[in-house]
Amino acid sequence: MHYTDRIAKLYALSEDEGCRNEAALAAAEKQAGGALPAALKQYLRRLGGSAAANQSFNRLLAATGYTRDSGDGFLIFCEEYQQAAVWGIRHEDSAAEDPPVYVCYNTAESGGWLLENEKLSAFLWKNALFNGTMEGLRFVANYVGEEPLPPAALQRIAERRQRLDELCDRGADYYTRGDTDAVVVCKNAAGEATGLFVGSQDQECFNELLDIFDSDDDWSYTSYDEENEE
Q: What predicted TM-score, i.e. pTM, was given to this entire model?
């Protein structure tokens, strides 16, 4: 199954939901001042219209027909919702099929553009998974703490979910079970797992995800917190 179809399954999108027509793609290319990579156009054709997948946290600008020039050789196509980081491709790579993606952080110590992913398609898949855990999906939960995740929690994830090796990097590991949920384990500079983000459209599946911890109280936030406040 193509990764865009796997994302569509995660978000429970029908065959037509999320699709962008050729006119919208043409507008995006015109705004970019030239061709967009084939991998990006393929993604947009299938999923460009899904606000949940593309705008929940990191904003895929290209999905709204918008890109911008960085001024130093990059075409910016995605940004963090507070613009703490932007992602782009080199202008000379814009006609490539599946070019590398670079990130630039909005800090004095950013060091300029850094390689994020060797392939644009991998970045788009990762972004859709992470956005899903950031309330793009109906049910979400997260753990963000100073202490690393308990070994038992990491073991349950490894035993109960498939590790998406092609997406994992030094910053995060990605898991799923049959593309019905998304599990993102974030790591610090020392490689310790200090953040956990999960999400699913299916409530039963989500309830199983909550069992990663021994107690629901171990989660920093779950979608049920808002229900309990009402």
A: 0.94
